[in-house]
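Notes, p. 3: input format for complexes.
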Amino acid sequence: MKILMTLLNGTALTLFLSMVGSVYAQDIVVSEKDFTCIRDGHHIRNTFIRHSDPEKLKEAMRIFKDRVPDKEYPVGTFMQLVPFEVMVKHPREKFPDTNGWEFFALELSEQGAKIKSRGSKTVNFEGNACMSCHEPAAKFDFVCEKKHGCGSLPLDDKKIAEIQATDPRCPKK
Ligand code: HEC
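Output follows (173 residues plus heme C):
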């Protein structure tokens, strides 16, 4: 009988853990080694996008390219405009104010990336909160591009391309 109870408890515990787990199951752990050369991502207009799962990458690229409104990017999506700033998608419960996006400010060298700050309240190179500009793009899951209502950057497309080309982590051409 005792053995039976133990077995049953074990089953109940496993069931409980898998239920708890399923809420956050999809989340990803992000560390410095995940931030490699910006050109490892796929380039659409001004942005580089990556995802470790090819199907989810396709989905993220489709949402971005077609500017699909009211649609969230898959958990695990990485986006970059400049080499030293990244948006990474977690489940929305993790950062409810940003639909789950975590903003990263990085310090880069040939050796790789160091995380200067991370979370939903990160500030950019000018000391402005990432979300202060990205917030108006709520209909596009806080992805700005040009016409989603975001605060504008003091950078034109040419300057953005120049900055992208300065990523010290990329192989020398
Ligand atoms: C002054 C306003 C402003 C601030 C502050 C800002 N951004 Fe942006 N961000 C923009 C604009 C505008 C674009 C679109 C640029 C384009 O595509 O030409 C953009 C684009 C991006 C993109 C590419 C995807 C997209 O949304 O178009 C990422 C990733 C990004 N920003 C991350 C960050 C991170 C991380 C921070 C903070 C460390 C940050 N941004 C702070 C205005 C801002």
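Residues 33-164 form one domain.
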